[in-house]
Amino acid sequence: MASLLAACVVSQLRPDSGSEGTTAIDKRSVAGPVRVGRFGLRSDVQVSRKHHGGLEQAVYAYSEEDAEYWEGELGRALWPGWFGENLRVEGLPTTGARAGERWRIGSVVLEATVPRTPCMTFARWVGGPEAKGWVKRFSDAGRLGAYFRVLKTGSIEAGSAIEVTAAPAGAPSMLEIYRSNP
């Protein structure tokens, strides 16, 4: 059964050498219920809604299984939120989500829209020797995660079950969308 391991919001804004000058990639899990509105989790920040956010990319989900893969690759623990995700999920392949797939978590309904596109801000966040070539490495691994729009607002909480309520037949997966847009 799929479940929500953690709901994550920005811990602190960090300086970044990208065009915005700051980044909200530093996310950490929060205890208790979290309100989810049309633009995502309450208390979260989207520095650039053009690239990471807005209504079509309000919530970013990443799977525990993919995080464990990267822990093995990088040789270190990667806490919920490390990928900049709002939701760390277990038992559900986020990159395998199909466009238009709907998830119910608590009272919230989300709809998969697009895959994550790794960027240089993410590479700078990774840091160390792994930062060089990170965008290509992350891309090539195909463990991207998925962005969602919020169809029904409400509250979520770690430990909640995730129910896939609709999965459009024939719709492309997040990985297929990513690989078809070089």
Q: How would you describe the overall organization of this protein?
A:
The chain has 182 residues and is α+β, with helices and mostly antiparallel strands. It has helices at residues 64-74, 120-126, 134-141, 174-179, and strands spanning 3-10, 14-15, 22-23, 27-29, 34-37, 40-41, 59-63, 87-90, 102-105, 108-115, 146-152, 154-156, 162-166. Strand 7 (59-63), helix 1 (64-74) and strand 8 form a beta-alpha-beta unit. It starts with a strand and ends with a helix. The mean pLDDT is 93.
Task: Compile the SSE list and pairings.
Layout: E1 3-10, E2 14-15, E3 22-23, E4 27-29, E5 34-37, E6 40-41, E7 59-63, H1 64-74, E8 87-90, E9 102-105, E10 108-115, H2 120-126, H3 134-141, E11 146-152, E12 154-156, E13 162-166, H4 174-179
Parallel strand pairs: 7-8
Antiparallel strand pairs: 1-4, 1-8, 2-3, 5-6, 5-12, 7-11, 9-10, 9-13, 10-11
Give the ordered list of helices and strands. EEEEEEEHEEEHHEEEH
CATH architecture type:
Beta Barrel
Instruction: Determine the number of helices (DSSP H or I, runs of at least 4 residues).
Output: 4
Determine the fraction of residues in helical runs and give it as a percent range. Answer: 10-25%
Principal-axes shape call: globular
**SSE class:** alpha+beta
Topology-level CATH name: M1 Pyruvate Kinase, Domain 3
Number of strands: 13
The CATH first-level class comes to: Mainly Beta
